[in-house]
Amino acid sequence: MDNPLPENENAKGGWKQDPAGVQANILEIATMVFAEHGLSGTRIDEIAARTRTSKRMIYYYFGDKEGLYARVLEAAYAKVREGEASLDLDGLPPTEALSRLVTFTFDHHRAHPDFIRLVMIENVHQADYLQKSDVIRRVNTAAIDRLAAIIRRGEETGDFCHGLDPVALHWKISALSFFNVSNRPTFSALFGTTLFSETAQRRLRDDVAAMVLASVRKTP
Amino acid sequence: MDNPLPENENAKGGWKQDPAGVQANILEIATMVFAEHGLSGTRIDEIAARTRTSKRMIYYYFGDKEGLYARVLEAAYAKVREGEASLDLDGLPPTEALSRLVTFTFDHHRAHPDFIRLVMIENVHQADYLQKSDVIRRVNTAAIDRLAAIIRRGEETGDFCHGLDPVALHWKISALSFFNVSNRPTFSALFGTTLFSETAQRRLRDDVAAMVLASVRKTP
Amino acid sequence: MDNPLPENENAKGGWKQDPAGVQANILEIATMVFAEHGLSGTRIDEIAARTRTSKRMIYYYFGDKEGLYARVLEAAYAKVREGEASLDLDGLPPTEALSRLVTFTFDHHRAHPDFIRLVMIENVHQADYLQKSDVIRRVNTAAIDRLAAIIRRGEETGDFCHGLDPVALHWKISALSFFNVSNRPTFSALFGTTLFSETAQRRLRDDVAAMVLASVRKTP
Amino acid sequence: MDNPLPENENAKGGWKQDPAGVQANILEIATMVFAEHGLSGTRIDEIAARTRTSKRMIYYYFGDKEGLYARVLEAAYAKVREGEASLDLDGLPPTEALSRLVTFTFDHHRAHPDFIRLVMIENVHQADYLQKSDVIRRVNTAAIDRLAAIIRRGEETGDFCHGLDPVALHWKISALSFFNVSNRPTFSALFGTTLFSETAQRRLRDDVAAMVLASVRKTP
DNA sequence: TATGAATGAGGCTTCATTCAT
DNA sequence: AATGAATGAAGCCTCATTCAT
User: Fold this and answer.
1) Which fold has domain D93-216?
2) pTM for the whole structure
3) Which residues in chain B are closer than 8 Å to A38, comparing Cβ atoms?
4) Which segments of chain C are extended strands (E)?
5) Do A117 and B127 touch (CB under 8 A)?
6) How confident is residue B7, by pLDDT bands cut at 50, 70 and 90?
């Protein structure tokens, strides 16, 4: 009511001469549109229309459609891995740490369907754009490192069996968390949506965590 | 002049006046091209060029691009599920049967990357085209039925715990088999290709089978 | 008046389904427009507007702007060299033959300013497109061959000195005939148009022929 | 902090606040780029990128693209004619003077291919920009004056025939010197590069000088 | 059943130029 | 004197699709 609107960045006119804001806005919208339609299915015009700037600015800042897509992909990976990094498992016993990691990953993937879709789309493109990005590769090895740390601790405590491959373990966690989101449309079209209710998903998540834990546990 | 050209499929004219053959050829090529580029990424011209007929015939037989895509999807599901149906597990004890089913699924997915890619693509499209196809739904419930049979037998023998959901079990098997193929491009771009060598894949497959079996086994 | 207009190819409607005619029409207009504005200065829309078909057909038949330009260049060379080939000098004594060739070339260049402009434009482009065309190269060696024949005969009769290089001779004839057309705009802007009146051009042409002849004549 | 940075032209800041230097730099780069790509083929962005200032300054100092091109053309003519003016032929006998002038012109053109290209480009544009420039016209009449002086002296000594037109003579010298540079790309694409070797060019130049001299010499 | 020719709508991108400081 | 940010207009080209036989 009595808001004087100082430095209002969203109000019309308040965002002129704000390069960073313009780029961020484009990136945000583009992420949504690319995730929805894929690379070739996306229309630059649609992105522009949903942006607070013009189509021209997309080319001004990102060069071309592929350039924008590449940046969207990078930003998506960065954001998701950043979210993962916030999870601190160092203080927990290894079994508990791994369990928490799986649970978190499962939920995290569910919470970021746009990211999942972008990765799917990138797989359709044979990971062409991801391969060119050093940024992304760097960000991802951190995930492996964290897992390796848990494995080492688990081996030391005797909870985990020896010779576990962190990459293979990551593969298992990812598969079970990723598929849940990526293949939900076809899966529910074929077998119904019961598996995607809140309770079913919670049970599934716990099941998944149990499966992963069982696979690392020392066989007596 | 009076050259009969009998049964020569490669010679010019050998396939003319062969509607079924022309359609099959179009479908085969279209499967490859759609699997490679996705729906919007595919060019009717590319399909036509790799076909032994012309672009005009694609429209003649399939109406439009979406019609062709829908037929490709149906054919792909039919072919893959048909391959699965050839697996006869009825004579085996339930544990063995499930183990064989998982192993087979893992290998079968690996052997049909184009199918996997088509399913991925269909997921990007929110399963729009799959939903319209009654054919596909019918074909897929068979997979659940077979799994339900194994579960029932496992419960009877006491090998499996009670209350197993065949759909959830199918979900687990699918997740671990599907991701392996669908996300291979991004996964190997990020973490290298070691996990995709023949030996590593065999170990992974056995690991996966063990995980699934552990998840159904009766807890003592 | 009582013309029934049978097979009228120019009347509206008479040219449908006439691929060769459409292509020829595009090529003719494109030649004029490229000659007027150069490669980058030309607008495909302008060509299309002056054509009896649409812009779309330009791409249908010629691929892209550069493809059209390349074809225009080829056609221009072919047409001009074809005109030259119609000149029969075999029956004439060598001095007379060479004189006639120079005179003809000078007039021929004047009569085809569009061709001259296209060659100028191609030189601005470092002959990039000409280099790719085998057609053009083939057509041009004929000009050298004809000149070589005249030189040989002149040496035999003793009219010409020995060791004449047909390529260098061609260079001289070309230079004096080409510049007259190519640099007419700047030259007349700087020094007036008197040199380009009909009579002055005739005198210039005869002067040029005399210069060339003097350069090949045996020095006593 | 208190770094004076005196007379350092390369260090950042050394050329700031140097309007004349900035303009000269723009002009120099623009000359190269226009000569390379023509008027419509040139991108202001390319000029700006190769300049030590920004695109904005080009507009600041030269108004628009055409204004810059016009200035480039003027500067090019001025520079080349200035080079010619340094040639002092007054002390030589007329035959020798003319011979030296032709030889010099031939070499001078070869040494300034960018100028030749700019003139070609201007001819493609029908000399539109040259016509508007009084500066250029003034500079060029000097060339005719000098030639007229030689002719007068040659007529007086009886070496040259009567009634020679200095403009026509200039035309001949120009044609043979200009074509050598302007049409080198197409000519060598068609007939090879042998004519453009150092030795062949020297012989060609002497040939050209001989041709021009023969054309003015009194016929006995 | 088959086909070469043709096309409208719309997509991506570029370019010279101006705004606002 | 100098500048980073912004832009409208227009260019090239592609695509699925239909026409006419």
Assistant:
1) Tetracycline Repressor; domain 2 (1.10.357)
2) 0.91
3) 38, 40-41, 124
4) none
5) no
6) very low
